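Render this sequence as a predicted structure.
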Amino acid sequence: METHQSDPLRRARLRWRSRRGLLENDLIFERFFERYEQDLSDADVGALTRLLELSDNDLMDLLLARKEPEGNLADADVKRVLDLLRNV
């Protein structure tokens, strides 16, 4: 069972980390957090954290579906969050 990520400080840190050098990424994450921030689960926060460890260009390629997640990013949690990001 997924649990809601109830720690507002953890969510705020994640939102801050999502501020990127590329405007396109910033806009996608801004819309994502406006829509989903209050509903994020611990698994969602973990998946977002892993995505935010990517370079701006690699992240943009995933967000725009130019590439699909590979390696340690090719799991259900990351794919679910990536689908949400791609559809905001």
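Summary. Helices lie at 8-17, 23-36, 42-52, 56-63, 76-86. The chain is about 60% helix and 0% strand.
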